[in-house]
Fold:
Amino acid sequence: MTLAELENAKAESLKEIAAANDAAAVEALRVKYVGRNGSIPALIKAMKDVPKEERPAGGGSSGEKPVDADLTLPGRWWGLGVKHPLSRVIEETAAIFGRLGFTVADGPELETKFNNFTALNTPAHHPSMDRSDTFWFGEDCLLRTQTSPVQIRTMMANKPPIRVICPGRTYRRDTTDATHSANFHQIEGLYVDTKPVSLADLKSVLAYFAKEMMGDGVTVRFRPHFFPFTEPSVEVDFTCHVCKGKGCNVCKQSGWIEVAGAGMVDPRVFGHVGYDPEKVSGYAFGFGVERIAMIKYGIPDIRWLYENDVRFLSQLA
Structure:
């Protein structure tokens, strides 16, 4: 093949392209010229037959790049994205508690047994210590099961007063149904002071959070419970946002939705971090970010939050 033959093939192809007047014709030409068995791949293979002195020009012609697009044309509009519902709940929660004087504290997701269990007064026989419930790496290292270790780290590094919230990713071996995931997010809060702190303070803070996050019609209910790191301990319920407390399928006709666990910090926890239990008092609380997002946005399946399906996420814009 000579350079003249190559130029003739190029001119013929451009003529056929100019004459194509519908999508089918364009597709046929695409297959003819750039398909696997098309003319252009064949020309490139035939470059070995081009005379040596013509190869540089022939090679440049056969592999010529298409003309650049017209830069004066308006750009394509792809639309604005939105924040993920979990990010929105975390940011909104931080803003709400920020108005009450809480700051945000962070910590590693790979934790020690002391920070995640021992310092939180967790007994050795507690189910969460079992390898069927927790992701362990050796005897002393694990993926944190809660963001409570951040509270421990904060207290060990600072003196009271302390007022922090601790958002972050946590891990448990739990994928039993549509409301559970091995990976999820928590936000825990801690307030410790040398001044007296009571359950009344805790209830007022959570009541404020409930109204700010869910609306003015939400009220808070405390129920006695047990957690190793608080005494007394309570479960915290919000009135159902769907039925406004009247009873529906979402709240199982109770009018309430369980949202958080809370209580007064156990004196033995203060002992583990070097605080004098006789001189300080405080409360702690924690709730799942996914749980709040599912309630707030009416999401029935927690797995939807992790599938990155634009069709779902775009509905929350």
Q: What stands out?
A: The chain has two domains: 3-62, 85-316. The longest strand covers residues 183-193. The domain at 85-316 is CATH 3.30.930.10 (BirA Bifunctional Protein; domain 2). The chain is about 35% helix and 20% strand.
